[in-house]
Prior knowledge:
By secondary structure, the chain is of the alpha+beta class. The chain has helices spanning about 105-115, 125-135, 160-165, 190-205, 220-235, 240-255, 300-315, 390-405, and strands spanning about 1-5, 15-20, 30, 35-40, 45-50, 55-60, 65, 70-75, 210-220, 260-265, 270-275, 280, 285, 290, 295, 330-335, 355-360, 360-370, 370-385. Strands 9, 12, 15, 16, 17, 18 and 19 form a seven-stranded mixed β-sheet that branches. Strands 1-8-6-3 form a four-stranded antiparallel β-sheet, with no helix packed on it.
Amino acid sequence: MTDLKLPNLGEGITQGEIVKINVSVGQSLTKGETIVEVETDKAVAEVPSDVSGVISAVLIKVGDKVNPGQVLFTIDGGTTDAKKNPLSPPETDPSPQGRGENNLTSKERELSEAKKEKTADIAASPSVRRLARERNIDLSTLTGSGPAGLILESDLHTAPPIAAETRVSPSTSVPLPDFSKFGEIEVLPFSGLRKKTAAAMALSWSLIPQVTQFDEADITKLEQLKKQFGKRAEMAGGKLTLTVILVKVIASALKVFPQFNTSLDEAASTLIRKKFVNIGIAVDTEHGLLVPVIHHADKKNLLDLSILLTQLADKARTRKLTKEEMDGSGFTITNLGGIGGSHFTPIVNWPQAAILGVGRAKMEPIWIDDAFVPRQILPLSLTYDHRLIDGADAARFLRWIIDAIEEPFLMDLEG
């Protein structure tokens, strides 16, 4: 009999939620066959079996929270090919049974302390774990930059303390009134995705003093460009949307205004200026808001961007995005124009410096050359970290974007 355990699901991922079980007791199983689907952060991972055999027991159910290494099924026949991560700390105390804490060597005592860390299944050395405890940092929120995702001391420099996250969510400790006294209610689970989004927004709101700048762009010419070249993008497998063009414009704007592509490291009193341009695109799905990232957007032309964004949006809606496809964003675009509304105040995604909100365009009469002319006007909302960006710089950045939008033929479709 073989235990089939949940494998490592990615760097920094310590827990997932079972959303689908694909096998049942008595079923024959082939190595490589998908046995379960697990939601982790904002993606759903298909977990394959590393053995062949017959399912003898199912130890989980849909909705269960599971951790890497947890036994999911038992199987008759077959042997596991899974290998333990050599960077993971030992599962048991290396000291012999019966030895007291005072009889441990300094190395054993350090390992014992590491074992007590609630994130003991994360790849990190005992010294890094100890430093994380001293700084009150949750290692499960970090992505290690070392080999195989090993968390290094340098990775702690930009990490927020646990206390900051606790401080921004007072509602978790304040009991609600009994609403059932006033009428019928329904109690629903707070899903992993929604909880993750809520925690990220609360953290951003707590850590970043945010200001929103409003402006409008005339996209009449831009709409003509979309109609002229839209078929070409469709033939290539993409769609030339307003968001695609905004990605191209903002990728250029971030080169002119690099302060909008920075992050503040308060602990080290330094600014991290990114020389790469990665742009996150908020995608509305039935499961919640997901933000896939277009990496190196400045190196892609409009056709490339239209194809990539179409693929990422499809993967977001089917919950097939990988962790890598959602990591590394330096700036975010959130476009609500397809739903409605005008200006709004999007929240900056920590540790980014800014986010651009896009509303629904509408036809308005604009006074041009002694007459009112119908023009299509797009509302834009730029929220930014006021510690890093002054109001005048935000106004100039947004006007630069608007100038580029209003003269779209300056952008080469292939450039």
